[in-house]
Amino acid sequence: MSMTPPPQALTSGKRPRRGERDSGDGALGWLRALDPRGRRAFAGAFGGYALDSYDYFTLPLSMVALASYFGLDSGQTGLFTTVTLVVSAIGGAVAGVVADRVGRVRALMITVITYAVFTVACGFAPTYETLLVFRALQGLGFGGEWAVGAILVAEYASAKHRGRTLGAVQSSWAVGWALAAVVYTLVFSFAGDDLAWRVMFWTGALPALLVVWLRRRVHDAPQAMAVREQSARRGSFAAIFTPGTADSPGLLRTTVFAGLLSTGVQGGYYTLATWVPTYLKTERGLSVVGTGSYLTFLISGAFAGYLTGGHLTDRLGRRRNIWLFALLSALCVVVYANIPSGANTLLLILGFPLGFCMSAIFSGFGSYLSELYPTAVRGTGQGFTYNTGRAVGAVFPTLVGFLADSWGVGGALVFGAVGYGLAALALLGLPETRGKELA
User: Is position 231 within any domain?
Assistant: First the structure.
């Protein structure tokens, strides 16, 4: 009897067991569909992205304290985020190539070590300029982690469950955000602002513990290793910019429109992620504890949005899910930024749908970008488009920072809705990929 696994099992990274149902029934059907190696890959990607999120949010949560300590205006503080995201484009593109050439897990470990080391270094920065440099270098690791982790898991997940599986990985961003908000509340309650922001960055050493576990327990999917050994064009930037011909569609069109899609979604998202804590403290007059309460609603909505969006991207399709939540996110931004000054209870309640919508749109990204590119250049394509979008989208938080002095932070936040409009338009140039096998 032949011991060769059936083609579908090799394609999905799953080893079917006797009597096992290939079903998405139940809330955790996607998890049961993964084999043990796939579950360890999921755990590694989930932990890496949660800690990536934690290290990212140490900055926005400390923004008011940093502005006071270094005597910065809104434009200068907004530059922190822009530098991080612009440099992350370089880190993400490089990490994608590394993932295609030396493996997903090795690339994941490199990105985690990089963002952990430079987050800790930020806590020792003596000047604004030094902090800006350290934050930029942190972006090298921050940019690559999500793309590499998403590809690692996508290559284990079956086509039927990929949206839900990657949506669950994406939900770890809310977990890291919540952890950062809890630590922020504790640290800023018990330490003075001049020390507290440094402590926040020092806690960014936590991700280093994950690397030890990744090295021992997580491995690339079999089909990814096979392609890496056989393909001469693996990790090639030239391949993702190849124009279409009569015989081959090429990848140039995909790369251009996927980059625009990433720019729009991340421009809208990072505008909110960067400026909502400052908005709550400076324009709504909330204390540290009060800000934490409002962020709880926002983060809870984000977590629910990631999981719900993962299910919808499998049911509705990748494009419809992004279209739906691009519209709803733009609507929520406009409403949230224009709540009357005396209606803080309404602001609290609306934090949940705002977090829900701006996160649900991300749930399909891991599966969608993975499905748009062949295995040999999947890391390169996803790393480049996602992080180029992040870099160009980084202009949005900086514009809000400069506009905040004349428009107010709340008024400038509406600019984030423009990003979601761009994302909706970009989908016109991309195909639907639901159900595609990653052969």
Answer: no
